[in-house]
Design a protein that fits this description.
Strand content: under 5%
Distance between the termini: 29 Å
Number of strands: 0
Low-confidence stretches: 1-54
Largest sheet: none
Number of domains: 2
Bound molecules: calcium ion
Helix content: 55-70%
Shape: elongated
């Protein structure tokens, strides 16, 4: 398929070249906007690629459906997921969804802590603490009480060990929590599956559950 697409592109480019070279000399004075339109025309010509990728998409969906096996039950409605018996297939998929969301939240927290240390440790001492709140913490160009408030809010939201500051301990704690949460999600998905769980299967199930 790729070689066909490529040859179509080459043909398209060749045809465009021919058209350009065939333009009468008088058209040399055509406004550049018209030439730009011509360029857009070439772009539309490439639209055929979308058709092919769509066809490939259908083929891969069909393949995924068979790879999903029992996990196709992830098509279930939100209410079915919410009301399913824990040991039913749908119930196990619901448990996976909850675990996967928890893993995403844990990963987001770890990223937020790392981001805070990268961007809000204003005095570069490796810690986000009240000292940074005495500087322009919120980046608005002035130092006011708002900066201390913003610092306290950020640390309050992300501090993993209650010591009132953000440092590498918090990164480590958050990373460990995210790893554990991801392990839990993986285990939950394996428990719900009746076929090998590949990365593609995970992606497909997450898509069906609307959590990708
Ligand atoms: Ca600091
Ligand atoms: Ca801390």
């Amino acid at each position: 398929m790729r070689s066909i697409q490529r040859s179509r592109l080459l043909l398209s480019a060749g045809a465009a070249g021919l058209l350009l070279t065939a333009l009468p000399v008088g058209l040399a004075s055509v406004p550049t906007t018209a030439l730009a339109d011509s360029g857009n025309g070439n772009g539309h010509g490439n639209g055929g690629l979308h058709g092919n990728s769509s066809a490939n998409g259908h083929a891969s969906v069909a393949s995924e459906n068979s790879n999903l096996g029992a996990l196709n039950a992830a098509h279930a409605s939100d209410s079915a997921l919410a009301n399913a018996s824990p040991n039913s297939r749908v119930g196990r998929i619901a448990a996976y969804r909850d675990a996967a969301l928890a893993a995403q939240t844990a990963a987001d927290t770890e990223a937020a802590i790392s981001d805070a240390l990268a961007n809000h440790d204003l005095n570069n001492d490796g810690v986000v603490d009240a000292t940074d709140g005495t500087l322009d913490f919120n980046g608005d160009g002035t130092v006011t009480a708002d900066d201390a408030t913003a610092e306290q809010a950020e640390v309050g939201a992300l501090d993993t060990n209650g010591d009132g500051v953000l440092n590498q301990d918090d990164v480590s704690n958050a990373q460990a929590a995210a790893d554990t949460a991801q392990d839990d999600a993986n285990a939950a998905l394996n428990k719900a599956a009746n076929k090998p769980v590949t990365d593609d299967v995970v992606d497909a199930v997450n898509h069906l559950l609307g959590i990708d």
